[in-house]
Structures are given as C-alpha cells and as structure tokens.
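Structure in, sequence out. Go:
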C-alpha cells in the first residue's frame, strides 16, 4: 500500500518507518511531510495515497487545518502523543488513533483494520487487485509466474524471473527483461506491484519496480538517499528516498 507520513519530528518519523518495515503488510512510504503547509502543497500536486499516517500537532499548527484547506480523499491513521484530540480526529477521515510511543501490535492492528475496511467498501470482485500479505499469496500461489506481452503482431509469454524491472514513463508502463528487451504493458505500475512476489520485486520509487536480481550496486547518495545501479543499465539515476532507504535495506537483507 502507498502511504504518506505527516510528522514534524524526525525521530518519530524514523521510528514509524522502522515499525512499518517490520509489519506483515508491504508498505511503501512515498514521502514524509513535516508541516501543514508542506502537506497541503504535496497532496495538491500528487496522486492521492492509499493511506496517511498523520501527527496532530505540527510545527505550523494542528494537522486538522489540512482538511479545512482541501479535500483529503483517503483514510487517515492519526499518530500523536496527546489523547485529547481523539474525538475531533474521527471527524477527519480517521480509522484509528495511535498514541506515541506507538506499539508494533497497535500499528499492525490499525493496518489490518484499514485492509478490512477497504475490502468491505470496495467489494468482493475488486479483491484480486489489492495488495495482500506475502504469506497469504505465497500459500495460495497467487503471484504471477508469467506476463503476456505484445511485440508487433505477436504475443510473448515472459517468465517473471526473466524480468529485470518495470518502469513508468510518459503515462506508459514498460517492462525490461534481463536481455534488455522492452515491452509496453497495459497495466499500471501499482497494479503490477500487487501481482509480483514482494520478496523478489521492490517499488524503489514512484517510477521503478525492480527485481532484486537486477540490482548490481547500491551506493550512498546525498541526504541519506541511495543510488541504485541495475542491469540492463538505465539512462537516468534511480534514487531511493531517505524515507524509503531503511525499508529497502531491510528488504535487501531478508
């Protein structure tokens, strides 16, 4: 699930990131935002995330101001050191209210609540397109073994283990196999992410979904970010954000 964290205290944000990395659900944190102003600006300029973790007392005011300035269309899990806001929080998209320091079991329960609510409101037929836990899919054999792609007038079946990475560009999604062949996909990157084994593929940023076997080098990058080198080579830098770096390193060391 794609999430955003709104938290002005760096240690609290890092703690939440580390807890999310240990959860059963695969959680991709797109960005950590530190103020009401920054949150409004980012949310207005980017696609709506699936879930927001939101502190209440931010550096420039209460996070409730975000809802007063714009229409937030996704559910929110509030994270705060104060219990006096809980009633007001449930007026603003809240599905849970976690008190700091956040306990791992409470966080896991909140994520499970989100998934159950999502199932209930989306309907049974949509379940196949949702992220589910790795253990559940592995037991049912739910991960794709092949992708059927088109080249000219022909259709080709590509084994998942032969795929180096998927990437999004100019409103298209492409697959690149280990030999460097490129194929245009008819699915979004988010949809593909739910179909492949998260033990093998990682959404390193908004643009790239990478097979672990294609990663040839990981380099330190300014501001605690990471730079990936993959094969086949790409013509641009693949950067992993500071917020996502810890979870990525844990995934690489699994």
């Amino acid at each position: 699930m794609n999430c955003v964290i709104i938290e002005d205290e760096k240690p609290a944000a890092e703690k939440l990131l580390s807890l999310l990395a240990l959860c059963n659900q695969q959680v991709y944190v797109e960005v950590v935002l530190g103020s009401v102003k920054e949150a409004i600006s980012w949310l207005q300029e980017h696609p709506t995330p699936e879930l927001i973790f939101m502190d209440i007392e931010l550096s420039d005011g209460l996070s409730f101001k975000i809802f007063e300035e714009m229409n937030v269309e996704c559910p929110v899990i509030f994270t705060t050191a104060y219990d006096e806001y809980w009633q007001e929080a449930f007026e603003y998209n809240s599905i849970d209210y976690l008190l700091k320091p956040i306990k791992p079991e409470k966080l896991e329960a909140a994520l499970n609540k989100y998934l159950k609510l999502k199932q209930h409101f989306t309907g049974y037929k949509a379940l196949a397109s949702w992220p589910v836990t790795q253990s559940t899919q592995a037991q049912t054999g739910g991960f794709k073994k092949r992708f059927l792609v088109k080249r000219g007038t022909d259709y080709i079946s590509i084994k998942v283990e032969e795929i180096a990475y998927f990437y999004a560009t100019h409103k298209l999604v492409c697959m690149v196999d280990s030999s460097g062949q490129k194929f245009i996909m008819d699915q979004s990157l988010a949809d593909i992410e739910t179909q492949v084994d998260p033990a093998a593929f990682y959404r390193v940023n908004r643009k790239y979904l990478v097979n672990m076997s294609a990663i040839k080098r990981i380099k330190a990058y300014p501001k605690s970010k990471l730079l990936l080198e993959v094969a086949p080579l790409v013509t641009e830098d693949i950067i992993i954000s500071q917020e996502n770096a810890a979870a990525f390193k844990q995934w690489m060391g699994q």
